[in-house]
Amino acid sequence: MENKELRKSYIDEKTGIEYSLVGDYYMPNLILKKEEKIILNKYGRARLKFLKENRKAEYTIMFINGTLNKHLKEIQETALQRVEVIIEQLKEKNHLTEEMKNTDQLYWVGMMNNFRNTAEEIVLNELIYV
């Protein structure tokens, strides 16, 4: 019986992937690129959940390409800006002023909550669930 010595590593000509000998098996030397760490807010988390549950192929492609974090960061920043713009537009349209905050606080708070909920619903349908 002939004792053949196995190479410690080799590169597959077809794929260009390098393999290293681990025990009796060759394992690919795959290294993921370092991605920017981000903290997801509610819009980022909602988009991530939507992609995982409803756009699996798109999620997988972005994850493999290393563009998922960048996408989520863009979505959450855009969503925050869009919510603020919509709230300001609704305040203008409904003539809600900062002075009303001092004169009729309950009305002002109720209207602001209404505006925020409306703006968030619009943003969810425009950016998150598409």
Entry keywords:
130 residues, mainly alpha, three-stranded antiparallel beta sheet
Succession of helices and strands: EEEHHHHH
Question: Total domains, how many?
Answer: 2
Low-confidence stretches: none
Radius of gyration: 26 Å
Q: How many distinct helices?
A: 5
| Main pleated-sheet profile | 3 strands, antiparallel
Structural class: mainly alpha
Measured by DSSP, the beta-strand proportion falls in 5-15%
How do the strands of the widest beta sheet line up side by side?
A: 1-2-3
General form:
rod-shaped
Percentage of residues assigned to helices:
55-70%
In total, the number of strands is 3
Q: What is the terminal-to-terminal distance? A: 64 Å
Summed over residues and divided by their number, the pLDDT gives a mean of: 90
Question: Would you kindly provide a written description of the structure presented here, covering whatever features stand out?
Answer:
The protein is mainly alpha-helical. The chain has two domains: 1-31, no CATH class; 37-128, no CATH class. Helices cover 61% and strands 9% of the residues. It is built from five helices and three strands. A hairpin with a 2-residue loop joins strand 2 (18-22) and strand 3 (25-28). Helix 3 (68-93) runs antiparallel to helix 5 (105-128). The longest helix has 26 residues, at 68-93.
